Amino acid sequence: MKLNMILGAALLLAGSSAFAENTSVGIEQSDTAGWTPLFEGDLSDAEFPDGVWTIENGELTASQDKLIYTKQAYENFVLDLEFKNGPAANGGVFVYLSDPKGWVKNSVEIQITDDSAAKWAKANPTWKCGAIFGRLAPSEQMVKPAGEWNRYTIVCRGPFIEVILNGTHVNSMDMRNWDSETHNPDMSKKPPWLSKPLNTLPTKGRIGLQGKHGGAPIWFRNIKIKALD
After folding, report:
1. In a 3-state reduction of DSSP, which class is residue 214?
2. Does residue 13 sit within a domain?
3. 109 closest CA partner among 207, 7, 195, 202
4. Within a domain: 18
5. Which of 61, 63, 103, 105 is most buried per CB count within 10 Å?
6. pTM for the full model?
7. Alpha-carbon separation of residue 83 from 40, 90, 154, 221, 223 (angstroms)
């Protein structure tokens, strides 16, 4: 299935048939209409600890496990980016971030993991790449081996979140169904640090990227965003 058709299906699930029927919202690399970079080249529109995040040759990476996030809050958008894992990497893309000081529980994390690493071979499915971390496993494992570039397309419209990884639609979430402090809707236990029910979170917030978690680097490039009316 073509990527713009997958995105159309995702937008249908998000309750927007108009966008689903309009294939101009498809995300081809050559498509520039309506897109803006998430961060400026000098990172002047981002917040992050001094000396941690750097850009070289268009690639953004961190020397420590620290978050970089937008100064602006976003709602109803498509986020498109590429990422590359170091061996055994474990990080994430954070949306609807409402409290930077308590970002883990006050956001939704779309997981980035080097699924091929022995360290994560037996990990909980909600820790796999493409998962809504700790909450909802991806339908398929589509991440490429460490050292290769991957592409995420993340659609956020109100409580609906859709995840497309390397051209495959791997996750769909309705945040309103996550109403427990301890369990997911399928009665699996959440990690204890995710105690805030998703149905209580605002659906507008900053967007963040996680740095060198567990000593394994992650690189990002071609990070762009498009607003959805």
Report:
1. helix
2. no
3. 207
4. no
5. 61
6. 0.87
7. 17, 12, 13, 6, 9
Residue type, 208: G
Domain that holds residue 52: 36-227
| 228 DSSP assignment | -
Q: Take residue 151 and report the two structure tokens written for it.
A: 């592409």
> Is residue 30 in a domain?
no
Q: What is the DSSP letter of 148?
A: S
CB atoms within 10 A of CB 118: 9
Q: CB count, 10 Å around CB of 21? A: 11
Alpha-carbon distances of 184 from 1, 176, 179, 180, 189, rounded to whole Å: 30, 11, 8, 7, 6
Q: Which two tokens stand for residue 136?
A: 């909802």
Tell which residue, 37, 79, 76, 78, has the closest CA to residue 60.
37
CATH classification of the domain holding 204: 2.60.120.560
Instruction: Tell me which amino acid residue 218 is.
Output: I
Domain assignment of residue 14, yes or no: no
Q: Which amino acid is at 69?
A: Y
* Structural domain count, the chain: 1
> Along the chain (229 residues), what's the average pLDDT of each consecutive run of 10 residues?
47 40 41 86 94 94 95 97 95 96 94 94 95 97 96 98 98 98 96 96 97 90 95
How many residues are present in the chain?
229
